[in-house]
Each structure stands twice: as C-alpha cells, then as structure tokens.
Specification:
Length: 85
C-alpha cells in the first residue's frame, strides 16, 4: 500500500509540475497548486479502500480554494493575464 501511494504522489507531482509551468495567471496557478495539494491530502486522509474518492474530493475542494485565492490576487494586482514568453 505504501509503495502504491508513493508512486501515485510521484506521478501527481510530475504532472503538476508540467501543468504548473503553463499557467499564466494567479488564478490558474492557485487552482493547480490547490488541486494537487488537496488531492494528496485527501488521498492520505481517506480510508484504505477509498483513497481515490478522497483524492477526488480533496482535489476539487483544493482547486476551488486555490482559484479563489489566486483570483483575489489577480484583482488586487490588476494582473488578469500574463505572458511569460
């Protein structure tokens, strides 16, 4: 079980790193970071047979919270769109 959890977290972190680099606004970055963090916490906190559900629920809640925080930051600084090319 621990090996499977470690593999899942490693794959999630790798996918998150790739996704995170393409984000252009604080809202997008917050949603990705919150979703990844929430999924990891949800998977760890869930019962053994329900880790997938815990990851989905935690990811959804984390993404919503991260997007809300990032949106506030975008509005505060007036950064609705960045181009980092």
């Amino acid at each position: 079980m621990k090996t499977t959890l470690h593999k899942t977290l490693a794959v999630t972190a790798a996918c998150g790193a790739l996704t995170f680099t393409s984000c252009q606004t604080h809202t997008q970055r917050g949603a990705v970071a919150g979703g990844l963090s929430g999924a990891a916490i949800g998977a760890v906190a869930a019962d053994d047979g329900r880790r997938g559900e815990g990851a989905l629920i935690g990811g959804a809640i984390g993404a919503a919270a991260g997007a809300a925080i990032g949106s506030g930051k975008d509005r505060r600084y007036g950064n609705h769109r960045h181009n980092y090319r």
